[in-house]
Specification:
This protein is of the alpha/beta class. It has helices at 41-48, 74-79, 96-105, 111-124, 140-152, 170-185, 197-203, and strands at residues 2-10, 16-25, 30-34, 56-61, 64-65, 81-85, 158-162, 189-193, 206-211, 214-219. The protein binds adenosine-5'-triphosphate.
């Protein structure tokens, strides 16, 4: 699903965020990316959907050559991915259903299929009854559920999440993690950057630790390994 070879990223101001990173992530894996603040986790995540480009190295995501693809191919890369952020990033003037449907309008899905898919993903995240609400009428956990519904509505092979529980209390975080677990159980690959030690230690999934832009640990059933 993801092949990263010798990837380095130096930002315009000279900050080295990643240095010669090599990683392979297979289809259906659930991978946590951990590390201290500023270690390079977000940069790693943002490379995957081409929000930033590497300074050197090669990166294949879901069959797309992220570094060398023409601009016209970028939408095809992103259609195969769902992305979830810490701050939800919902459109405030659209309802729950419209926020989710918007991700399908972008790919010009037929109207009937769209309605069916929106209902199906709202069922998965347990928010069917709130489809008419606006984001401001939802709790943080509910907003994150909508963001997850939006991320999976086009059946992506890969879901990428950057601190998805960062703004949520422990109980709500677990509800969100249960949804990610279910999505993964259906075969979707998940790559998640997180600071949540308890979640990482409890889930016992693959853990990739980044320090100063380098991978320092990669364990199949890893632990968080840092003090919170
Ligand atoms: N757009 C940018 N321009 C310049 N430097 C940047 C940019 N984005 C990130 N950096 C720097 O790159 C390094 C890695 O940042 P990154 O956001 O990837 O870390 P992180 O591990 O996600 O941190 P956090 O846990 O605080 O989100 C840091 O030193 C950061 O200051």
């Amino acid at each position: 699903m993801i092949q990263m070879k010798d990837i380095s990223k130096t930002y315009e101001n000279g900050t080295v965020a990643l240095e010669r990173v090599n990683v392979e992530i297979g289809k259906g894996e659930f991978v946590f990316i951990v590390g201290a603040s500023g270690a390079g986790k977000s940069t790693f995540i943002r490379l995957l959907f081409r929000e930033v480009l590497p300074s050197s190295g090669t990166l294949i995501v879901n069959g797309h050559d992220v570094v060398n693809m023409p601009k016209s191919e970028v939408p095809y890369l992103r259609r195969g991915l769902g992305v979830v952020f810490q701050d939800y990033r919902l459109l405030p003037d659209k309802t729950v259903a419209e926020n989710v449907a918007f991700a399908m309008q972008v790919i010009e899905a037929p109207r009937r299929r769209m309605q069916h898919s929106v209902n199906a993903v709202l069922d998965i995240v347990g928010l069917r009854d709130k489809y008419k609400n606006f984001p401001s009428q939802l709790s943080g956990g509910e907003q994150q559920r909508v963001a997850i519904a939006r991320a999976i509505v086009n059946n992506p092979a890969l879901v990428i999440a950057d601190e998805p529980t960062g703004n949520l209390d422990p109980e709500t975080s677990w509800e969100i993690m249960d949804i990610f677990k279910r999505i993964n159980a259906s075969g979707t690959t998940i790559v998640m950057a997180t600071h949540d030690k308890y979640i990482v230690d409890t889930m016992k999934r693959r853990v990739i630790a980044i320090e100063d832009g380098k991978i320092v640990r990669d364990e199949a059933q890893g632990v968080y390994g840092y003090e919170n």
